[in-house]
Amino acid sequence: MALAYIRTMARGQADILLSEFANRLIAQGVRVGGVVQSNTTCTDTDLCDMDVRVMPDGPVFRISQSLGAGSRGCRLNPDALEQAVGHVSQSLSAASGQLPQLLIVNKFGKHEADGRGFRPLIADAMMAGVPVLTAVNPTNHAAFQEFAQGMETCLPGQLPALLDWAAELQMRSEQTV
Fold this sequence. Notes:
Layout: E1 3-7, H1 13-27, E2 32-41, E3 48-54, E4 60-62, H2 78-92, E5 102-105, H3 110-113, H4 119-127, E6 132-136, H5 141-148, E7 152-154, H6 159-176
Parallel strand pairs: 1-6, 1-7, 2-5, 5-6
Antiparallel strand pairs: 2-3, 3-4
Helix pairs in contact: 1-6
């Protein structure tokens, strides 16, 4: 079982890194499942719109919602997140044909820390032998470690390190066949 994570760096940087990593692997023919996030700056606020793309080729879900001026609540749209989870879940079902070779989850966030969101799918993927990569911010790090129970590996938040990790996974996979 492989469960790796990167620490969330500057705002949006982990999203860019995981997207670039996923795109590179998909271009190499690796079966990548999960979601990557893209952020679009809003013109009327310092916040951004958050979209997740189900890999490898969609659909895209807007997981942020506008709560109005002055709102301080969580902007995550839980219904949209659960729709994305449902699409990714299909790729992990036996009926989908081939399992992904890697599951990427844009982040282990508050929903996952609370036992919702992608948390059950991360566990399902690991049980099926599918390696998982995610990003974790300091706020949710303790919950992630409790969930991972020592099985996690922290990777450097740099594309070459992620590509080396993926190559190592591929070599291990080929040796067990």
